[in-house]
């Protein structure tokens, strides 16, 4: 009995300091991110949208949807849906606009999730490399959309006369007092922490206990042919399995293994592979209900197919680049 108590005491002595440090970084990061969003920082990033829509032969008004997407994915897609329904954009032009939207939809998550949550969990080196990889993937998809628009979209795909029936004013300026914006940022931050930190504590404790009591490499040796072919440690298999179901839990699962089992490159490659497999889960859980709700089943299926295909291609290329032994 005493040995069990001593084991639990040792476990919590190892877990609590790490958990407290990560939770503190997450709290500070989430609050700073919400304050930045409340004061319109995202608007400056989205202001670049006009430089992308014009080479893609899309109206400047499409930039409004891109700006809106950076603040709210739902609102941005709804704006594009309005453009399509009004006749401003046909299906081809709308698909190009959706592809261009990718990076600006990612920007929102940089401020609200990747920087304040994932980087504190993964640490500066691995975390920044992971976020940079995801940013590069999103930017590559957006640039692909611009190139496709330049080739595939023309005046035949855009009816500018329909602008008279479209509200293209974009999101309203936030004229609330600074104190009210900060207060709302604090409320949002607390809500995020209540959702993330308890789950983080449970998963982190289980992972630390598992790593401390079992040889992870030997337990996952059955996957050695696959992981070996990719240049990954066999411990990547359970991490990928966890990440497929929950991205935050996957990051927590790999964090204790960063000291020796994984290098930053193999860790990021593992998480990206988990992201590929998680598409099957996220498509049924989120993408189909969301996209069908915005576009309807027929066009929503096209949007999902295009988005998924481009993500698979560029994530696969990024994984291959990360696992090149030369750097």
TrEMBL record:
Coiled coil: none annotated. Keywords: Membrane, Transmembrane, Transmembrane helix. The keyword Membrane applies. The chain crosses the membrane at residues 22-42, 62-81, 93-115, 135-153, 196-214, 226-245, 266-284, 304-324. InterPro entries: MJ0871-like. The keyword Transmembrane applies. This is Nucleoside recognition. It comes from Halorubrum cibi.
